[in-house]
Amino acid sequence: MSYELKKKIKIIENKQYRIKFLAQILSILWVNKYSKLFKFFGGGEVLDDSREFPHDWRNMPLLFRRNIKNWEFILLWWISNVNKIRTKWLYKYLLPKARKIVTRDQFSYQIANQFRDWKIELYQDFATEIIKKFQNTKWQKFTSDKYILINLNIESLIPLNIFKIKEFCKKYPNHQKIFFPSDMNDDYFCYYRLRKIIPDLQIYDWTKYNLSQILSLFYNTDAGIWARLHFLLPLKIYWKNFQAIHYADKIRKVIWN
Prior knowledge:
Blueprint: H1 3-8, H2 20-28, E1 39-47, H3 59-63, H4 65-69, E2 73-79, H5 85-94, E3 100-103, H6 106-113, E4 120-122, H7 126-133, E5 147-150, H8 159-170, E6 176-179, H9 186-195, E7 202-203, H10 211-219, E8 223-226, H11 229-237, E9 241-244, H12 249-255
Parallel strand pairs: 1-2, 2-3, 3-4, 5-6, 5-8, 6-7, 8-9
């Protein structure tokens, strides 16, 4: 990143308001000190009408209407299908005003193209470049030679998925079972649930390793069963046997296409 670009980027402190509603009112009235900054709206589901109201409709037009009015924002990543009337209204209002739209899958690109036909880019997930970069690194094994990786999150913690993991482990009877917690809070809860059916399941504390070592864990594994998108990506890119636990449409769109 160039020095000139770094000077333009401002780090915003993660300060929580005691009264969240008050912070939202300040944003609506444009008195929030960050209201004039250019915005990048992104994420796995930057626009997703499967969320509960108001997250699928109200938040952007109200909280960031100054940015929308002045075309001072960019949309990044996944745009869901139009399933509700208010979603169609939102897309007709929001998508034409974005300075640029960058999608990471063909489905999102096609949806955005229904509402505008200019400055839409289709680009691979940013994590893909990082994962590929370490393919030429001297990989370091720091666990047993034969192991499989497991992950489950709160959204996918249902009996059917627990059963799938149990059956997946049966295919690798002589392998060490390693649980990789993506979220160091929620996923720990899932780990303890899985320990009840997989007694020899061990947890991996990724905070003790650097990025190269973490990716080497994926590079040297024999297989994995996973719920989170960005940990399915290295399994896919490194040509590992894996099974995806579908809890969000983005997994089908990015992993299987």
